[in-house]
Amino acid sequence: MLALLVSLVPTFWHGYKWKQRHPEKLGFNWGYFIAYSTAFFYVFPLGGLLAAVVGSPKGVDFEFAAPLAVLLVVIVVASFMAVKRRRWALIVVTLLSLNPLWMIINVFYLRNRWAEFREEAAGRRAIPST
Fold first, then answer.
1. pTM value?
2. Are 33 and 11 in contact (CB under 8 A)?
């Protein structure tokens, strides 16, 4: 529950910034909320568990620590990319949330926004990076 409440602050901040920069487009508060809440829900407990495993007096249990570290990296990268409005990342973060209600909501949310996300992706590909 704390992860949900904490995630509201960056969600509304990013939503406000998005609306300022793109007043002609739909908001993305739901996407920001999914990305931040999933990241906060996993990163703090799993990060603490990883720190405990690495700092164990018996030594590091690599069979446990390595997959945990990989999972944390996947969650952080997917959440970061979802905040940047990448549709694949929003799907990954939704699945990682393990929340059936959010999965159902996102089926409709992504179906209604898929063309907009596709257009943004095409626009990113058309602009040469410097």
1. 0.82
2. yes
Tell me the pLDDT band of 83, cut-offs 50, 70 and 90.
Answer: very high
Measured in whole angstroms, the distance separating CA 5 from the mean position of its chain's CA atoms is 15
Please name the residues in contact with 10: beta carbons below 8 A apart, sequence gap of 6 or more: 32, 36
Q: What's the pLDDT at 54?
A: 81
Distance CA 109, CA 67 (A): 31
Please state, in angstroms and as integers, the Cα–Cα distance from residue 100 to each residue in 10, 12, 103, following that order: 23, 23, 5
For residues 52-77, average pLDDT: 84
Closest CA to 15 of 28, 34, 33, 26: 28
Name the CA radius of gyration of the chain, rounded: 17
* Nearest alpha-carbon partner for 32 in 23, 21, 40: 40
